Amino acid sequence: MGERVFINDVGPRDGLQNQAKVLTPEQRVQLISALVDAGLTAIEVGSFVLPSAVPAMAGTDKVIEALPGGIASSQVYYSVLVPNQKGFQLAQSAGVRCVEMVVASTETMNTENIRRTTEQAMAGCEQMIGLSKEGGIDSLACISTAWECPFEGLVDADIVIKMSDQMLNWGATRVVIADTIGAAGPDAVHELMNSLVQRFGAEHLACHFHDTRGMGVANTYAAVSAGIRHFDASVGGLGGCPFAPGATGNVATEDLALMLSQAGYETGIDLKKLVAAADLAGEMTGSPAGGHSSRWLKRQIEKGAL
Amino acid sequence: MGERVFINDVGPRDGLQNQAKVLTPEQRVQLISALVDAGLTAIEVGSFVLPSAVPAMAGTDKVIEALPGGIASSQVYYSVLVPNQKGFQLAQSAGVRCVEMVVASTETMNTENIRRTTEQAMAGCEQMIGLSKEGGIDSLACISTAWECPFEGLVDADIVIKMSDQMLNWGATRVVIADTIGAAGPDAVHELMNSLVQRFGAEHLACHFHDTRGMGVANTYAAVSAGIRHFDASVGGLGGCPFAPGATGNVATEDLALMLSQAGYETGIDLKKLVAAADLAGEMTGSPAGGHSSRWLKRQIEKGAL
pTM of this prediction? Predict the structure, then answer.
């Protein structure tokens, strides 16, 4: 068995919230079940945000109630995104054992996206990390637009290093370095992740890539080379935004799983079942889902080689 | 200006020969002209093979006669594939200044593909490299299926190292290490290319990737990290085989050019014009052409940001 690399499938959250079609909680559970069946051991299952702001995430409480193995399953590490203290309390009441909170690297992105200054967003993050620790809940602190911001352009590595340092000092279980708009290339990824790994250790870090410029797999490889072993990805590359031409979803879980298994890493994922989960996601959302490797994977399945 | 990375666009040869639709020599020249206009400084423009075997490459002599700047242009490094001595002589008569010859890494692939044993294929290669030197013509010696063979599976690195050594000793200008079936992942690419660079120096090596499993860009990054500065790629990812479901073309030139320019390398390529060339290729072949970054690139063009 090779060294383990952990993939957290964020399709049911980051993927679905960017689809034109809103799925029912039952459909979302069906997709999550397909992912569990495919061997995913970490899944972001929803978020406690205002349903008026993100209709696709309404009913996350119902999703949680119907999760395979239950929200506190020992087989699958379920997490939920929480935007604020209210969301955190809902997650805690629902028995969630891992919450994710997001702060952008730049002032403009925080203001535009969550109507808070970076200072306010960081204060909220500190508070939620504190509440998580008190409640025995894991916390993933995500730094979004960590390489490039759509408003402010390239982001200084020192900002990301400083924010990571603060989040880890407050007690975050892991800091997730996110290329939210899919702007980074593998060179930049290797450089930043290498700096962060040197300072904080790979076990406290994760990466989250989008495939907007087709560099998601290359970026993952660059981060793996820097020592990172935790990645977000989305089944079938689910995501993108049907209203924003050119936007693309998260890097596809199947592309990562294939690349990592070829490199000798153990992901626990059954690629055949994962392709079936991606097909299910495509059917339910009405927009075809699949990574860059899907055509080849399907051919292997047809041939009985997978 | 960043360090130079050289992209040789093989779309007019490796790309077009795998398309269902056969283009006229005039159309092929039109595509090549679009590539020259986009700043490509190396292009594989055709091959001297039997027209009955590869109908798409019939009339390569006519293509050569109409190349922008002429076949011996000092602006663009035009090359031609030659399968044997007969093809070499035709290329030489046509004034070609760089020929490419291919030997597979395995016995079965050589037998199936060119009806020769590896020994015979290597002897032919030695002869053509010798003729090239005599004639003052550059020679690119390509080792196909360098990581994996569809018949024999994974290829031992020692075989590729030994073949490269022989080809360079005979006087090949450069050895092109080719993942012909798009089976390699970035880990394997980095390992082999690192070994080869240590032994022979990066200036004597090139890489040729296919995107079958969606790892072409990651593989290029891995090879760049190992020191490689010469790559084959195909405009719009042209290639694949319409008769072989699941087969995919060369890695797209635009994906490489974008990734490399983001990493600070100089490719000389104008991405806007390259996207236009990919569109032209798609129109002419009747099958949409474009890399993983094309949707994003087109959006940048629409916005006037490129």
Answer: 0.96
